[in-house]
Amino acid sequence: MNRLFRKIAVLAAPSAAALMLFAAAASAHVTVAPTESTTGAWETYTLKVPSEKDAATVQIDLRIPAGAEFKQYEAVPGWDVKIEGNKISWVSTGEGILAGQFQRFYFTAKNPDTAGDIAWNAYQHYADGSLVQWSGEEGTETPHSITEIVQAAAGGGSHSGMAMDDHGSMNMSDQDSMSMDEHNAIMEEHDKASGVSPMIYIALGISLLSFLLAAIALLRKRA
User: Fold this and answer.
1) Which residues cross the membrane (predicted)?
2) What predicted TM-score, i.e. pTM, was given to this entire model?
């Protein structure tokens, strides 16, 4: 019996490794949400930055896609914001984002007036001097986020509902404060944006199926 369990453990090892790799890939990406918005809308976007190294993340640069216009940002304690053309930089004034942590940055941009996909290229700076460029295509190790801009319905359009102060940062008034439903919707979009390439799901499925078939065959042989 112990020998049987050892064989099953050997068979399970690749599947366990695949699960760990899948979990790591799903959580380590820098993402921008939502993944879908409408033409011409003032959309509140959320940049989520996890630290995947032992070193802290001390700066994140985001390139605003062609056709989109940066409008506002929400001030975050411990971070300065620098705007240079289409590049928005969040620069840490403290410890930054430590290993095992993540930080969300909120900003508003006006979407392009034409439908299509826009790509958010991000550049993550670490305290050890290393740089991770989140500018690759889907399926690469460091993909950029994509937002699909769809045609707005006649008379439609949206606005972030946030007021801008004298410094260009967003302030939430009592009347315009983000509702729990809106907050949950943003978190939902992040789950989607943090997703990985479909090929990873396929590889994971094949790995698990192979393990199950091998285990069944082994049990039948023992019977």
Assistant:
1) 199-219
2) 0.66
